[in-house]
Amino acid sequence: MNETLKNSSMELITLSVARPFIEEWHYSNKVPTGKNIFIGWYSGGVLYAVADYGIGVNAYQASFLSRVTGLNVLNNNMLELKRLCRIEPRNDLLPLTAFISRCHKLLKKDGYRHIVSFSDPMHGHDGGIYKASNFIHLGKTNAENHAIDKDGVIRHRRFYYRHAKRHNLSMAEARLALGLKLVKTEKKDRWFISI
């Protein structure tokens, strides 16, 4: 183990620390809603990387993963790695695989046993970090319907769904009112690891 890696430290961090980091360094520029466990990785007193684990949006994910893997995957022993990002330029002495491994050791102490994550080919991600971290590839998700605005910004379907509910509109009427066009996303790759 190199000295830089040996002298790095990890700690649970708050939303107020994680949010500006994720908004700057993650391609989505967004912190997901819902339950989040933020872990920060520090080197020389500087926040170098952040991992965001939490409950995913798919309520049936645990039962699906249990069926596919044959393992006892439950909602209360599984987390989704929702965001993983680091500052640029990267420091080759601080590989994200080491950070992920340390995160999983920490989460295992809290009773978590399984981690799922997704790589998004629309953003040029092929899951290389997951392969290198010993996740297994469990196929692809279904394509999702999102909407795109006049400026080319992709809006999640929740955006127009909420508008439709607030204004008693159909989904199509809400998209029309918001100036959105329906688009289908690429399928994402699903990655899984037991810790």
Written overview of the protein:
It is a single chain. The protein is of the alpha+beta class. The protein has a single domain, classed as 3-Layer(aba) Sandwich (Aminopeptidase). It has helices at 3-6, 15-25, 61-69, 96-109, 128-132, 157-167, 171-178, and strands at 9-13, 36-43, 46-54, 78-86, 114-119, 136-140, 145-148, 154-155, 181-184, 189-194. A seven-stranded mixed β-sheet has the order 1-2-3-4-5-10-6, sandwiched between helices. Strands 8-7-9 form a three-stranded antiparallel β-sheet. Helix 4 (96-109) links the parallel strand 4 (78-86) and strand 5 (114-119). Helix 6 (157-167) crosses helix 7 (171-178). The longest helix is centred in the middle third of the chain and has 14 residues, at 96-109. The two termini are 21 Å apart.
